[in-house]
Amino acid sequence: MNIFIISDSDLHIKFENIYIYSIFIYYKFTNLILTTFSLSKLVIEKMKTNISKIIEKITNQLSGDRKKDLQLLKNEAEKYKNHKDAREIIKEIGRMIFKLLPGEAKNEYSQILKNILSSIEKTLAESKLKIQEGKLDEAERMLMSILPHIERYKEDKASIYLVFNEPFEQYYYKYKFKPEKEIRTPPELNTEVFSNLAYILVEKRNFDKAIKIIDDGLVYNPINTNLLFEKAEIYKLKKDWNKFKNITNLCLEYSYKRIDIARVYRNFGYMFIELQDYDAAICSYLMSMKYDNINPQAQSQLFYISQISNKKIDIEYYDKRSLKILNERGIQKAPSKEVLELAYSLGRNFEESNNFKAAIYFYIILFELAFDDKIKKKIDNLMKADKQRV
Fold it and tell me: In terms of DSSP bridges, do strands 32-35 and 182-184 run parallel, antiparallel, or are they unpaired?
């Protein structure tokens, strides 16, 4: 399997914590507010459009005198504010302005960013408490107040704005969708806002609005299974089994954790019970237990099927035939081959480059899905080797 190699610096999520690398700045010139993220030289070179020529022309006019250059860039921002490519041009002008600002001004804008982030995090935390208390209207208002900070980021000619829950997601997204534009992750992006809002709307039985909110959230992470599970739940409540099945199959394709794969199969089990296809339901719940034998739901549903069908379930019989029975119903095999191959390739690449922590992370994903003792042994050896470095 051929995959691209991504350097550590290109992975904008730390393995322990989210790595906030984007800088958000407000500039106000003649009632023009610029929200600025720097465009890399590589992106500009790739664009090969009038935008790059305009930026080059502006750059060539810079004299090295900070005061004069700031005035020049202010004038250029005003000049191009109505240009058809104003969004991209203004972003790059903003980057140049920021570089010219004195340290005190940069600190001021950094503080603005921190204040906004702190406010968003506080509002999100308070909204969760309101949901727990059953105060859904208050929680909805709080979450809606956060949305403008997120939805200001729209895909443009140079960049797409995405946020991932874990490092693997970013690698998988790049492998699967092969984006040509630069991925940027502004610190305000948070898909939890969308999933919590969708939950509230589902509780209120406002399904259409909930679906729209989820789709808006998926723009910022199309492989976010939390959002996809929430969307599937809506179609389950509506008993639209075709859409439920399609979205749940997507969850299966994108899942890289045992607990999510188990949830997928439990969802299929529920659907097949509703459709009175008990053979497929049994197979689904048995597959679920393979990936999560702690959750009691699968076992209780198997007991329920036994009761309503008035027969004892022959587990050995269904174990041998589960994949065939589910495949006949259009249910994909889990985990996806892409996920397994990518996890192995990334683990191997990081191992060969002596980045043991990253290699361990990807090998653990592989082991959790493949139950491969050779991979478990490799993980143990890498952990020992990494510990010896300290």
Answer: unpaired
The span from the CA of 22 to the CA of 40, in Å, is 12
Q: Mean pLDDT for the chain?
A: 82
Entry pTM: 0.72
- Strands 182-184 and 159-161, by their bridges, are parallel
- Taking phi over 0 as left and psi of -120 to 50 as alpha, with beta for the rest, 380 belongs to alpha
Q: How many CB atoms lie within 10 A of CB 257?
A: 18
Tell me how far apart the alpha carbons of residues 79 and 89 are, in angstroms, rounded to a whole number.
11
How many other CB atoms are there within 10 angstroms of residue 293's CB atom?
Answer: 11
For the stretch 28-47, what's the b/e string if a residue is b when 16 or more beta carbons lie within 10 angstroms of its beta carbon? Answer: ebeeeebebbbbeeebbeeb
State the sign of the Cα–Cα–Cα–Cα dihedral 349, 355, 364, 17. Answer: negative
Q: How far apart are the first and last CA of the chain?
A: 34
Report pLDDT digits (tens) over 254-267.
999 999 999 999 99
- pLDDT level of residue 84 (50, 70, 90 thresholds): low
CA neighbours within 13 Å on the CB side: how many for 57? 9
CB 51 within 8 A of CB 44: yes
Rounded-to-integer distance, Cα 185 and Cα 153, Å: 10
* Residue 304 vs residues 76, 201, 278: alpha-carbon distances, Å: 71, 31, 11
Per-residue DSSP letters for 325-339?
A: HHHHTTPPPSS-HHH
More confident residue, 19 or 55: 55
Give a three-class secondary structure readout of 37-82: CCCCHHHHHHHCCHHHHHHHHHHHHCCCCHHHHHHHHHHHHHHCCC
Residue 345 neighbours by CB under 8 Å, 6+ apart: 1, 3
